[in-house]
From TrEMBL:
Pfam families: ApbA. SUPFAM superfamilies: NAD(P)-binding Rossmann-fold domains (SSF51735). This is Ketopantoate reductase. Transmembrane segments: none annotated. Residues 4-128 form the Ketopantoate reductase N-terminal domain. InterPro entries: KPR_N, NAD(P)-bd_dom_sf. Gene3D superfamilies: NAD(P)-binding Rossmann-like Domain.
Length: 318
């Protein structure tokens, strides 16, 4: 399969590497002028969680960057994995250049998914979410991927041959696929979870401060719990994750989470990578909390715990 990764960000690079290693032709679209700023190869310092031990990968991977894209291209798949606040511009750019490619929406979404992709042909859009993270320092990429990739359906989104081709692509590349029927609600819950974790991490100085403190992790639970009515106000349906946060005593849930977040596992490793890559900062991490709080104010949903942290995440407004 011929695959275009939109941008040379962390997720695009991690999954682009996995697909290329499986024999697919992978290229990266970058904005005009950016190719000269990037090295023609990526120094990988990552863990590959598709196998149980998550082996370390240390390799120099040559990549192909391109700065032009027109509707006459022959890509089978375009993977769009950019920050949620950059989606509108990316979708607008692709709307006249998508050609016959399938577009995999592969990341966080806070607006209504149908509205986000309204400029694209609906039957060419497939929804997914990665399991990985990290960051760049120059041309060195540190981070990792986990075995599970999430795919799902937003209202009447594609469930046909294009969806099956994307599903088959991931499975043939060594990933397992978890399918989510109501992906819209799943995405929104994931977004408020990120807002709770990252805003509280700002309050305690990052990942290390968060996992050391049971009280800080309990506060994450309470932050997410108070955001669930906002998810419902947006039209989402709280499911298993929201039920656990709402019904399991916060003290018990924080005890379990602390055990997980301090264990020798891929989740702990990825959280550490996000921290070292500068994602737990007012500028990068705070954007989730800012958007959640702005939506809550528009809808008249009270979020006093999140509002109390606003001086921390508003300082990094971009």
């Amino acid at each position: 399969m011929k695959v275009l990764m939109f941008g040379r960000g962390t997720i695009a690079s991690l999954y682009g590497w996995a697909l290329a290693r499986a024999g697919h032709r992978v290229e990266f679209y970058v904005r005009p002028g950016r190719a000269a700023q990037y090295a023609p190869e990526v120094d990988l310092r990552i863990r590959d969680g598709r196998t149980r031990r998550g082996p370390a990968v240390r390799e120099r991977w040559p990549i192909t960057l391109r700065e032009d894209l027109d509707a006459g291209h022959d890509y089978d798949l375009i993977v769009l994995s950019v920050n949620h606040d950059q989606l509108d511009g990316a979708v607008e750019f692709l709307s006249s250049r998508v050609g016959d490619a399938t577009v995999l929406m592969f990341g966080n979404v806070w607006e209504d998914p149908a509205a986000v992709v309204s400029a694209l042909p609906a039957d060419q859009v497939v929804w997914g979410f990665p399991g990985g993270g990290g960051g760049y320092a120059g041309s060195t990429l540190s981070g990792g991927i986990v075995k599970t990739v999430f795919l799902g359906f937003c209202d009447g989104s594609n469930r046909g041959a294009r969806y099956q081709a994307v599903r088959g692509l991931f499975r043939s590349t060594g990933f397992s696929v978890s399918e989510v029927p109501d992906f819209r609600s799943w995405l929104w819950f994931h977004f408020i979870l990120d807002a709770g974790i990252l805003s509280q991490a700002l309050a305690v100085g990052g990942h290390a401060g968060l996992v050391r403190s049971r009280a800080a992790i309990e506060e994450v639970v309470m932050l997410v719990r108070e955001m669930i009515p906002l998810l419902e106000a947006k039209g989402g349906t709280p499911r298993l994750g929201a039920a656990l946060v709402s019904r399991v005593p916060a003290r018990l849930l924080s005890f379990v989470l602390q055990k997980v977040l301090t264990g020798d596992n891929m989740l702990t490793f990825l959280m550490e990578q996000l921290d070292s890559a500068g994602q737990m900062t007012p500028g990068a991490g705070g954007v989730y909390a800012r958007d959640v709080l702005a939506e809550a104010r528009r809808r008249g949903v009270a979020l006093p715990r999140l509002e109390a942290l606003e001086p921390l995440f508003s300082a990094g407004r971009r």
